[in-house]
Amino acid sequence: MLFITGPLYSGKRTFAQRFGGRQRYDVQALAVAAADLEALADELAACDVVTATEVGGGVVPADPAERAAREAAGRLACLLAARADCVVQMFCGLPTVLKGELPEC
């Protein structure tokens, strides 16, 4: 699985579409309602490409529910990165490989 992360509008989806296969986008939104993040990560790891928006780099929300959602999204990203063959961070449309090697396009 190729896991692509980065801030909003950083080019994650455009980059991911080059690789084809079964893809899931914006999976950080799934973390909020997940009863078991490990099980969710296992399910998502069956995809070829998974993208998640990095949500931990800004101001910490005052609302406890928003903080919990952000924490869950971060934990899911860690679980996905551990399961991924390749992890890419996108920033300003530029991919940086953090783990493994990019698959053939």
Brief rundown of the structure:
This protein has a single domain (2-99), classed as Rossmann fold (3-Layer(aba) Sandwich). 36% of the residues lie in helices and 23% in strands.
Description:
There is one protein chain. By secondary structure, this protein is of the alpha/beta class. The protein has a single domain (2-99), classed as Rossmann fold (3-Layer(aba) Sandwich). 36% of the residues lie in helices and 23% in strands. It is built from four helices and five strands, in the order βαβααβαββ. It has helices spanning 12-16, 28-31, 37-45, 64-83, and strands at residues 2-6, 23-24, 49-53, 86-91, 94-99. It has a five-stranded mixed β-sheet. A hairpin with a 2-residue loop joins strand 4 and strand 5. Helix 3 (37-45) crosses helix 4 (64-83). It is globular and about 40 Å long. The mean pLDDT is 96.
